[in-house]
Design a protein that fits this description.
The protein contains 14 helices and 19 strands. Strands 10-9-6-11-14-15-17-18 form an eight-stranded mixed beta sheet, sandwiched between helices. Strands 1-2-3 form a three-stranded parallel beta sheet, with helices on both faces. The longest helix is centred in the last third of the chain and has 17 residues. It starts with 6 loop residues before the first helix and ends with a helix. It binds cytidine-5'-triphosphate (CTP). Cytidine-5'-triphosphate (CTP) binds next to helix 12 and strand 14.
């Protein structure tokens, strides 16, 4: 950090970075050290803040070459007009500038100064040089400045600087910090010890969704019914279940601290009322199995939904697809539904491709082309990201 009253804001920034688990080495120019004590930064960063080439006792020196090679990212915040000019022209008359010249890592620069200094041609042309050198500039913000003047020149807020750092390290992880539950596959409903009722769901759509969500940084819990296919690797938790009741139990257990619930499972709507303890023998007469309804998992969870929790379901319809899907959103209390219509060729839950339409609770329709399920999953996740950030 260089000499600016905004150095005090850098203290908050250092705290935020530490909270994220960053390892920090604070390097200050002598003039920054006049604004805020190096001791403050030594304590906050848990590492001695460095100011001079030569250590205070005169016996050692602060190795700018080692510092420059150690860092994965160098952030100059606040960057004063003087330091910006030193960086642009390659001066090395303090530890910060020498470290900059030695650094091989990317550099982020957050300027802070009075408005006339900031908009001066000299400063602007120095900033242009730094931008063209490939450095990331966090533009100064508009507002009241220490001089009492109002204009551009305020150091970017610490939260904004943190966001820039996080997205630098995780450029494609917009679901970072979000916990998502996905149900997938069929459920099986026992008739007797050797037989069950089930359906043809392969689980593929749900697995591809889990994979796509993970790729975007989400914490993914997969609740899966029995399938021949294996769940994708690298998920945070995979819960294997058999029946709809087991799937319901597992979902209830993890729902309260989830942000998003996506029901891709083909849950059996009915289960045999009575599971025979012994194998049913044929005796030449008609066999009758009485069925009772399974609980609707997603509809039950939707009733407990709190603010900032989202639920999405699937609908497989053979006729009046859009109307039936809209009715399902309402009946089940969903945020949006992913519709597969059997009227569309290639849609369905067995093949490798799918053609979907997403309908939200305001009845907006988004149609997609017939695609491989992996791409369909990416479309759904992209839609979800937009939906929850809208
Ligand atoms: N679903 C669920 N629990 C159930 C049944 C379905 O959570 N017991 C979820 C599915 O995972 C899917 C959505 O609800 O996301 C739609 O399921 P679907 O079977 O199409 O709807 P049903 O409620 O069974 O309605 P119907 O059979 O009348 O079409």
């Amino acid at each position: 950090m260089s000499g600016s009253i905004a150095a005090y804001k850098a203290a908050f920034f250092v705290r935020l970075l530490r909270k994220e688990g960053a390892e920090l080495q604070v390097v200050m120019t002598p003039s920054a050290a006049q604004f805020v004590s190096p001791l403050t930064f030594s304590v906050l960063s848990q590492r001695k803040a460095l100011v001079e080439y030569v250590s205070e006792d005169g016996a050692g020196w602060n190795n700018h070459v080692a510092l420059g090679l150690w860092a994965e990212l160098m952030i100059v915040a606040p960057a004063s007009a003087h330091t910006i000019s030193g960086m642009a022209t390659g001066r090395a008359d303090n530890l910060l500038l020498a470290t900059y010249l030695s650094a091989r890592c990317p550099v982020m620069i957050a300027p802070a100064m009075d408005l006339d200094m900031y908009r001066h041609d000299a400063t602007q042309s120095n900033l242009r040089v730094l931008r063209e050198r490939g450095h990331l500039l966090l533009d100064a913000e508009y507002g009241e400045l220490a001089s009492g003047l109002i204009g551009e020149g305020r150091l970017a807020e610490p939260e904004k600087m943190l966001e820039a750092v996080l997205s630098y390290f995780n450029p494609e992880k917009p679901l970072r910090g979000k916990k998502v539950i996905v149900t997938a596959g069929p459920t099986i409903e026992a008739i007797d010890p050797v037989r069950y009722i089930s359906n043809f769901s392969s689980g593929k759509m749900g697995f591809e969704l889990a994979r796509a969500l993970k790729e975007k940084g989400a914490e993914v819990v997969l609740i899966k019914g029995p399938t021949a296919l294996e769940a994708p690797p690298g998920l945070d938790r995979v819960i294997e279940v058999g029946s709809a009741l087991e799937m319901f139990g597992a979902a209830k257990e993890v729902f309260s601290d989830a942000d998003i619930f996506i029901a891709a499972a083909a849950v059996a709507d009915f289960r045999p009322e009575k599971v025979e303890k012994k194998k049913i023998k044929k005796d030449g007469s008609k066999a009758v199995i009485e069925l009772e309804e399974n609980p609707d998992i997603i509809a039950s969870l939707a009733k407990e939904k709190r603010e900032n929790q989202w639920l999405a379901g699937f609908a497989l319809e053979s006729h009046d697809a859009v109307e039936n899907a809209k009715e399902k959103i309402r009946k089940k209390g969903l945020d949006f539904i992913i519709l597969n219509s059997l009227e569309d060729e290639g849609a369905g839950f067995q093949g490798d491709s799918n053609k979907i339409t997403i309908i939200d609770k305001e009845n907006n329709l988004t149609k997609f082309e017939l695609k491989p399920k992996r791409e369909v999953a990416a479309d759904i996740v992209q839609y979800l990201i937009k939906y929850i950030h809208a």
